[in-house]
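TL;DR need structure tokens for one chain.
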Amino acid sequence: MSPDTERNSQLANVDQLLEAFFRYKNKVLDQQQKTETNCKLNPTKSHILGMILREKNVWRLMWPDNSVCLPAQPPLY
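>> reply
TL;DR here they are.
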């Protein structure tokens, strides 16, 4: 086997190892992201969620049949 052929073969093996490593790393990171929940509610997050839920309920009371009439958009300047 010539030195170039052997080197190319070794580089191909290294590339395969790197690709397998990165696939495994991404899989582990995806699993961690799915299992970790960052749901710590501080007062600000709690207030914002409360405002959103109240606003959503007001809209639901105003238009119970889901025919929401959105206000006109402001003019673009």
